[in-house]
Amino acid sequence: MTVDKERLREVAIKATPGPWKTRAERNCPRAIVIAGTEQIADAGNNTHWTDEQCARNAAFIAAASPAVALALLDECAAMERELERWRHGLTIEGDFVCPNALAADNARDDLARLKALALEACEIATSWSGTDTEDGVRIAAIRAEVERG
Questions:
Q1: Is the pLDDT at 146 greater than 60, yes or no?
Q2: Structure pTM?
């Protein structure tokens, strides 16, 4: 579903200011929405809906007041601006998402250092266990995985 945010903002600005709330009429099971003391919407039972459903409809209308719609639109706009900032500033480097090229370079350097350390650890472990032992075989498999990675 696509929401015409500009149109929603226009109608929210022009709508009766709130706060909006619901009120049941005396001796009549109608659910109305009011702003201050003025009725602004009737979610009454002159439809096929039950009184309970009419009351729920009125509660929703009141909850979706112009102030709420404008606040949600403002929040949505702020999130869209933040998303754009991230889109323009991100670099994808392997499995890492980096906020800029410098961070991408740092991530690459860090990965290279980790790979070197892992290979060095494999060398030391092999010198302790030898290559023809069960541990030596596991170390060789780890070394091969590091070299591929």
A1: yes
A2: 0.54
